[in-house]
Design goal:
Layout: E1 6-12, H1 19-22, E2 30-35, H2 42-48, E3 52-55, H3 62-72, E4 77-80, H4 89-93
Length: about 100
């Protein structure tokens, strides 16, 4: 049986204080960051960390931004988290192969 892959998707705006920690998981096959108009270093930091960056203009419709992010993801599973959320190393061990 092939190992399943997980794409991490985040919809962000001005999250430079949180983005580095949020993208520090080593269990994801890819990290998708959908930026809705940051004016800080969020995009720059996410790019430095290897995330795939996409711009999406904020149209007051979270579902539209989320569906856009899903369309970019290639993993078997998708993990949606806010930039201020993360897994601990112990938590990642609990995710089955």
């Amino acid at each position: 049986m092939m190992k399943k892959t997980i794409s991490q998707c985040m919809i962000v705006k001005n999250e430079e204080k949180n983005i580095r920690r949020a993208l520090s998981w080593d269990i994801m096959c890819e990290q998708i960051v959908v930026d809705t108009g940051s004016s800080d270093r969020t995009v720059e930091i996410a790019r430095e960390m290897g995330a795939k960056i996409f711009s999406f203009p904020w149209i007051n419709d979270f579902a539209a931004a989320k569906n856009f992010a899903i369309d970019q993801a290639k993993g078997d599973w998708i993990a949606f988290l806010d930039a201020d959320e993360s897994f601990t190393p112990e938590d990642t061990k609990k995710i089955p192969e």
